[in-house]
Write a structure and sequence with these properties.
The protein has 608 residues and is α/β, with parallel strands linked by helices. It has four domains: 217 residues, Thiamin diphosphate (ThDP)-binding fold, Pyr/PP domains (Rossmann fold), CATH 3.40.50; 100 residues, 3-Layer(aba) Sandwich (Rossmann fold); 175 residues, 3-Layer(aba) Sandwich (Rossmann fold); 66 residues, 2-Layer Sandwich (Alpha-Beta Plaits). The chain has 20 helices and 23 strands. A seven-stranded mixed β-sheet has the order 3-2-4-5-7-6-12. A six-stranded parallel β-sheet has the order 15-14-16-17-19-18, sandwiched between helices. A four-stranded mixed β-sheet has the order 9-11-10-13, sandwiched between helices. α1 packs parallel to α6 and α14 packs across α19. The chain is globular. It binds thiamine diphosphate (TPP). Thiamine diphosphate binds next to α4 and α16.
Length: 608
């Protein structure tokens, strides 16, 4: 049977066909759908959202120890979080096959950087496969488990956004029965990385690496496509598709395995074609390693950009230089820009509005709430990685001393807090900071598409489970009086945040408002609010909330006056189809120009 599948669905299918038993992940674009597909489609596989990528890989490690085929999938930066177990996992090897899927994000569609994770395979001395389409995504995934068991190594499978989210036809097969039995085995010297044992294992993995090099020479996924020999491209992954689209008639060395590289095969290719170009996205990974082998390609990163995604035009431009004629734009008028924004009704907006009013420096974190960095809210002042807000505000407090008191705050989402915020909060208490931390608890991992987490009370398959309570956890870490607020209630929010900012001790505020898109929280929304155009003074107080449902229009003539004779330049409008009735605009309007149709207008956690 054949099916159209995204790369991520194909990776999930490959896991299923390989007989995977345990799959763990932490969500992150563009990797998220891998585990979601496993959870939805392949019920025999145990699937879990782990609190972070390090835990996910450790879970996979344990499953492998027991003999199961297992995987951990994550976005590129997730591998940084999992890097500690990963680097030593390379030393201990596997029992059941273990695959780490890294989904990189060239062009940063949804990431904090565009690091090229091919370096990780080289760094950890493990093999890496890189598919060019959905069929290869499935095939390479299956193969990765075989390679993992045959060479006693974790294997990395690298995808990028275009492979993960692009679709193609995939041939489906029946699942295999994995060769390793599931049982407890003890092999202390192999799996216990005390220095004396680890020294030995280092030697073992160097030997393994030589065998993997031999495998790379024979692997049919590293293939030459010999056509016109005047030009040859060495390429891999999505870059192969871009080059092939523009230059179908030249020759190719297409690498399905990007680490280790097949030196002899590469040498053969150099002999068979006249000029070799290396086409790859992001870093000159293939190029540098191929040059280090002594080969001299005609071009690489001198012709193709190091930053952002490649595409067929960039490949063409790189080769043609000044002769390149850019294609005419498909549309005469460019599409209006639509910068990312908090949704109408988002609970984060109320809190961010209050922080803006309080004029505090806000150490940010990663999640929907980071979008409050953009105007008109312009609240979030820094952000580097998940969990960093708390350490950053603590460090600032220690550096600023008295000068910073009451003026700095850290904001962190619920999923992010559970991912990487618990330890820094422990540090804040342990090292006697005055930092104020606000957890934005919307009961979901909003930014990546509403995945469950240990604070949501549900598993990936929707079963109810224990819900980590942030108040209890805060107390256990030593916060004396963690406080809850309803961020849709601006007065209460401002009062509590102000009080907590003034405290000399560390403080924790939990801003509780379910994600406005969370179906189980909102059976119904409030009725949309309306602007009374006879009263609106055009002061823009509501517009400055940055709500996508609210717009502002300039007015002239008779309209440039309110009913009671006040001059105005414009008026606000609320788009009813977008307004879920959160009432923030109602609260900020000083002129009673916003009309409500609800008796109990403010949402709260009781909706859940
Ligand atoms: C190491 C790492 N893993 C995963 C991600 C992807 N990611 C971005 S934000 C986010 C969590 C968002 O959830 P939450 O903190 O609850 O905030 P919300 O978006 O719901 O406001 C995740 C998983 C990432 N950026 N970095």
């Amino acid at each position: 049977m054949r099916k159209i599948m995204s790369g991520n669905e194909a990776i999930a299918r490959g896991a299923y066909e390989a007989g995977v038993k345990v799959a763990a992940a932490y969500p992150g674009t563009p990797s998220t759908e891998i585990l979601e597909t496993i959870a939805q489609e392949y019920k025999d596989i145990y699937a879990e959202w782990s609190p972070n990528e390090k835990v996910a890989l450790e879970v996979a490690f344990g499953a492998s120890l027991a003999g199961a085929r297992t995987m951990a999938s994550m976005k590129h930066v997730g591998v940084n979080v999992a890097a500690d177990p990963f680097m030593t996992l390379s030393y201990v090897g596997v029992c059941g096959g273990l695959v780490i899927v890294t989904c990189d994000d060239p062009e940063l569609y949804s990431s904090q950087n565009e690091q090229d994770n091919r370096h990780y395979a080289r760094f950890a001395k493990v093999p890496m496969f890189e598919p060019s389409d959905s069929q290869e995504a499935k095939d390479f995934m299956k193969l990765s488990f075989e390679v993992s068991e045959r060479f006693d190594t974790p294997v990395m499978l690298r995808s990028v956004t275009r492979i993960s989210h692009g679709k193609g036809i995939v041939e489906l097969e029946e699942p295999v029965i994995p060769p390793v039995s599931i049982e407890i085995r003890k092999d202390t010297a192999k799996y216990t990385m005390l220095p004396s044992y680890a020294r030995i294992r280092h030697g073992v993995i160097e030997g393994r690496f030589l065998k993997l090099k031999e495998f790379a020479e024979q692997f049919p996924g590293n293939r030459m496509e010999l056509n016109d020999p005047s030009i040859g491209f060495i390429t891999a992954g999505i870059s192969y598709q871009y080059a092939k689209e523009v230059y179908p008639n030249y020759s190719y060395l297409k690498l399905g395995m990007v680490w280790p590289l097949p030196k002899n095969l590469i040498g053969d290719f150099f002999k068979k074609v006249k000029k070799v170009y290396i086409v790859e996205e992001l870093d000159p990974f293939l190029e540098k390693n191929i040059r280090a082998m002594g080969f001299k390609p005609k071009g690489g990163k001198d012709l193709f950009p190091i930053c952002g995604e490649l595409n067929p035009f960039l490949v063409e431009k790189g080769l043609l230089g000044k002769k390149f004629k850019p294609p005419k734009p498909a549309l005469k008028e460019p599409l209006p820009p639509r910068p990312p924004n908090l949704c109408p009704g988002c609970p984060h907006r109320g809190l961010m509005y209050v922080l803006k009013r309080l004029k505090v420096y806000t150490a940010g974190d990663i999640g929907c709430y980071t979008l409050a960095a953009y105007p008109p809210l312009s609240v979030v002042n820094n952000n580097i990685c998940m969990g960093a807000s708390i350490g950053a505000v603590h460090g600032m407090a220690k550096a600023l001393g008295e000068k910073g008191k009451g003026k700095i705050v850290g904001v962190i989402g619920d999923s992010t807090f559970l991912h990487a915020g618990v330890h820094p909060l422990m540090d804040v208490v342990y090292n006697k900071s005055y930092a104020t931390i606000i957890i934005l608890d919307n009961r979901t991992t909003g930014m990546t598409g509403q995945q469950e987490h240990p604070g949501s009370g549900y598993t990936i398959r929707g079963e109810t489970t224990h819900r980590t309570d942030f108040v209890e956890l805060g107390r256990a870490l030593g916060i004396e009086n963690p406080r809850r607020i309803n961020p849709w209630n601006l007065e209460e929010t401002e009062k509590v945040v102000k009080e907590e900012l003034e405290r000399d001790q560390p403080s924790l505020v939990i801003s509780e408002g379910p994600c406005i898109l969370l179906r189980r929280a909102f059976k119904n929304y409030n009725k949309p609010l309306q602007v009374d155009s006879t009263k609106c003074r055009g002061c823009k107080a509501c517009v400055n909330l940055g709500c996508p449902a609210i717009s502002y229009q300039l007015v002239e003539g008779e309209m440039a006056m309110t009913a009671d004779g006040k001059k105005r330049k414009g008026i606000s409008q609320i788009e009813a189809s977008l307004c879920p009735g959160c009432h923030l605009c109602y609260q900020v309007c000083k002129f009673e120009a916003i009309q409500t149709f609800e008796e109990k207008p403010i949402f709260g956690f009781e909706t859940m």
